[in-house]
Amino acid sequence: MTSVAVIGLGYTGLPLAREACRAGMRVTGIDENPAVTAALNAGRSHVPDVTAPDLAAMLRAGFRATTDESPLAEASVAVICVPTPLDATGGPDLTHVRRAASGVGDRLKPGTLVVLESTSFPGTTDDVVRSIVERASGLRAGTDFALAFAPERIDPGNDTYGVRNTPRVVGGCTPGCTAAAAGFFRRLCDRVVEASSAREAELAKLLENTYRSVNIALVNELAVAARAWGIDVWDALACARTKPFGFQEFRPGPGVGGHCIPVDPVYLTHWARAAGTPLRLAELAHEINAAMPAHVVRRAGHLLRDRGTDLSGARVLLLGVTYKPNSADLRATPAAPVARLLRRRGARLAYHDPFAETWAPDGEPVDRAPDALSAAADAALTILLQDHDTLPLDRLARHARLLLDTRGRLRGSGAHQL
């Protein structure tokens, strides 16, 4: 039986572990957070895409979670699924990847397949992970063990596409490494795509999310400019999407969130600048998207001034604070910088979100309004940041004293647009 060790049991690692269990593999999950491992062993999942019944089936199949790295010594496959965030300077932070690679190298046995799933810039697998593992183990990639990159393609909350039916890209340090990784993932995924090497696979992952970042930035910039021109950008988008070819719709909003779009393009642009070939379009797109929360707050200030009041001391309701609709995911939500900037202007904040029982951007809790409509009636301004299906959007405009819609859902209702 194939023995798999999954390092990192978050949004990427836990769904992978579930699929490996379903494929009949013996799976151990390793995570440095003892609260996470204890909860998983007790049948409580912290990842919404892995349900309690999913986890129960995993535990019956032999899955166990631990903070102990010793099971790596027995694993025939080790998959690194740790976070790749940004550091304090806004650059790539590979601390978790380096630590995981060191743990693998200290216990590596010949013949093991080592896979990096964590998103990073081209060369991370070859130049960072390979050097750490080889130095710690004394073994050689491509000769004594296989090393490959196979980027995650998890879309939290997506009920249609998961690990099994999303094509998996794999690229190894050698052709033999690619073949070994492809063989493993063919047991988990319906389709495996072999890249020329790990570097092409790494670039492909960054390309996917930079493509989205650039196109979101385009419509965000158009939304700001269209307001100055007196043009309804939402009507323009509705017209454009009727074209049956050559156009893919992206929609403006208060900013971008999640792990991918705010972070992945930075890994690409940082690597490109270090290589002496800056990607100016990708850099500019990141700047435009990062500036959208400030635009929302400026719009809020203008709307209140038009009513003869000011943000300072005004009660502002933020409606929907997760980064994507119908999801509880708060990672890098643009609602956080919106709240930060409103607080700096002296606004008194409350929020309502059926998917977030508590919310504390920058560690400062925001009062949760239990009822959206009554809270909107009490607030000087309501800002719709996320348009969850369960929100009473059809009645919101009738209750809110002043309403700013950043999602284009309330056109024609009297709400002010982004």
Describe the protein.
This protein has 418 residues and is α/β, with parallel strands linked by helices. The chain is 41% helix and 13% strand. The protein has 14 helices and 14 strands. It is globular, with a radius of gyration of 23 Å.
Topology:
Layout: E1 3-7, H1 13-22, E2 26-30, H2 34-41, H3 52-60, E3 64-66, E4 77-80, H4 95-107, E5 113-116, H5 124-137, E6 146-149, E7 168-172, H6 175-185, E8 192-194, H7 198-229, H8 233-240, H9 260-274, H10 280-290, H11 292-306, E9 315-319, H12 335-344, E10 348-352, E11 367-368, H13 372-378, E12 381-384, H14 393-399, E13 403-405, E14 416-417
Parallel strand pairs: 1-2, 1-4, 2-3, 4-5, 5-6, 7-8, 9-10, 9-12, 10-11, 12-13, 13-14
Antiparallel strand pairs: 6-7
Helix pairs in contact: 1-3, 4-5, 7-9, 7-10, 9-10, 11-12
Question: What would you say about this model in short?
Answer:
It is built from 14 helices and 14 strands.
Keyphrases for this structure?
41% helix, eight-stranded mixed sheet, alpha/beta, six-stranded parallel sheet, globular, single chain, 418 residues
Number of strands: 14
Strand content: 5-15%
The major pleated sheet works out as: 8 strands, mixed
Distance between the termini: 55 Å
- Indicate the overall shape: globular
Which H/E pattern describes the elements?
A: EHEHHEEHEHEEHEHHHHHEHEEHEHEE
Query: Low-confidence parts lasting 5 or more residues at pLDDT below 50?
Result: none
Strand order in space, largest sheet: 3-2-1-4-5-6-7-8
Q: If you compute it from the alpha carbons, what radius of gyration comes out, rounded to the nearest whole angstrom?
A: 23 Å
What percent of the residues sit in helical stretches (DSSP H or I)?
40-55%
Average pLDDT figure: 96
Give the class from helix and strand content and strand pairing: alpha/beta
Q: In DSSP terms, counting alpha (H) and pi (I) runs of 4 or more, how many helices? A: 14
